[in-house]
Amino acid sequence: MTVAAIILAATAEGALDETTGQPRVRRLADLAWSGGAFPIVVLAPDPDGSVATALLGTEALLRAPADEAAGPAGQMVRGIGEALAAVSQTTAALLWPAHLTWVGPETITSLIEAHGAEPGSLLRPTWDGRPGWPILLPVTLTDALRALGSGLLPAEVAEALVAGGVPHRLVELGDPGVVHDVGTRFADLPQYQGPPGPPADRTHEWGAEVAAAAGLPEPETDPAD
Fold first, then answer.
1. Cα angle 31, 134, 145; round to 5
2. Rounded mean pLDDT of the chain?
3. Do residues 36 and 108 touch, judged by C-beta distance below 8 A?
4. Is 0.90 surpassed by the pTM of this model?
5. How many of the other CB atoms lie within 10 Å of CB of 192?
6. 182, 170 Cβ separation under 8 angstroms
7. Shortest CA distance to 25 belongs to which of 37, 11, 35, 36?
């Protein structure tokens, strides 16, 4: 499974806004890479080259956005196309509005893992039961995204896909960053909780299957791990 990150910045100013001492898109590109996403595509206007400069040294590919008339869904479709052009084996894309700056790299890793278990489903991370971003969209569902048209706000795109009947699942990840954007200071974020269970609905304990077959207790996890 190859999962791209599509970072969506509507303006150069938003892309460059300082976030914990870094330009916003630089922080997001580093988070995406740390979480295991590849390729990383940043869609942002860059009239004077400042966004490209901010991304120097990262694995991100800076690409011009689609025409404004395409709307947010059209920008997402363009990002998926750019990811496929870069890595043809891409199977899904994390659609990531740039104002969601507090998402943890563990959340990216968990969504990628969940995609491996459900490769055909739209995955929506939640915190305290509230759906957030980035959403993970299999590239096989790109036509459903394209069919939404240009009139929806970014926050409405996921709801419209679900209303249209695409296979989907909510994935509780205990990460407040999926719903709290730059309007919340990092210091004011609720506590990170982590997922209540494996995001792919399976465990990875060595020897668990062997123990079960033998009727023995499952191996215990060292609390220090």
1. 135
2. 89
3. yes
4. no
5. 15
6. no
7. 11
Contact (Cβ atoms closer than 8 angstroms) between residue 2 and residue 83:
no
Q: Mind listing the pLDDT tens digit for each residue in 97-156?
A: 999 999 999 999 999 999 999 999 999 999 999 999 999 999 999 999 999 989 999 889
Asked if 80 and 138 touch (Cβ cutoff 8 Å), the reply is no
Q: How far apart are CA 27 and CA 55, in angstroms?
A: 9
> Whole-angstrom Cα distance, residue 61 to residue 40?
6
Distance of CA 49 to the CA centre of its chain: 25
| Residue 13, H or E segment | helix 12-16
Structure tokens at 111: 């969504």
Q: Which two tokens stand for residue 51?
A: 């966004």
User: Is there a contact between 107 and 178 (Cβ–Cβ < 8 Å)?
Assistant: yes
For residue 199, name the pLDDT band (cuts at 50, 70, 90). low
Q: Please report which helix (H) or strand (E) contains residue 50, including its range.
A: helix 50-54
- Helix-then-strand count for the chain, H and E: 8, 10
Average pLDDT over residues 166-178: 97
Mean pLDDT across the stretch 15-26?
A: 95
Distance CA 132, CA 127 (A): 7
Asked whether residue 198 carries a pLDDT value surpassing 90, the answer given is no
Model pLDDT, residue 200: 62
Q: Looking at the DSSP assignment, which residues form a beta bridge with residue 97?
A: 8
